[in-house]
Every structure is written in structure tokens, then in C-alpha cells.
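User: New here, any thoughts?
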Amino acid sequence: MKYHEYRNGHLIQTNKKFSALTKKQKEHIGRDLRERYIKRMKYPGVKLPPKKREQILDEVYEIIGKKDIWIPFGEVKKYYYSRISSFIRSHQKQPQNHNQDKYAF
């Protein structure tokens, strides 16, 4: 029980890794991070400033806490920063529907 402690009546693992979460929990966290990051992007292909990236991380970590998912902040931060480039790429690949609709018959 070296890496376990009681917090708010629950026994939690203090050295828990992101990979230890269930698939549904990982998808939920990844989706929230991606949606918030893309929503705040003004220019495609350009990373957000550090202050905005930290705000997104804090918002999503609050949501994680409300869902009763316990994961150390450092693990979520590491996952988030490793995925930023894929968020940007996926945003660039999205078709611009408003341009295509103009020429549809």
C-alpha cells in the first residue's frame, strides 16, 4: 500500500498512469481536450499560446474531477502535450463545408 492513500473516503492510487484508465475514460478525456483546443484555435496549423493551453488543461481537469475519475494532474498534462500536434493535424484535415456548399448543385 505504498502508493495508496485515502482521500474523501476513497482509496486512490497516487502513482496511477494514464494507460491504467478504462477505454471510455481515455476517450472522454481525449475528446474534451481536442474539442476545447480546436474551439480556441484562431489560425489553422498554429499552436495556442501557453496561457490558453494551460486554461484548457485546467478546465478539463476540473471536468475529470467532477466525473470521479482520479488521475494525477501530471499524467493528464503529459498526455495533453503529446497530443497537441495531432489536434492541429486533425483540424487541418477537416473539410471546409461552407466552401463546398457554395458550389453544390
In short: Confidence is low (pLDDT under 50) at residues 97-105.
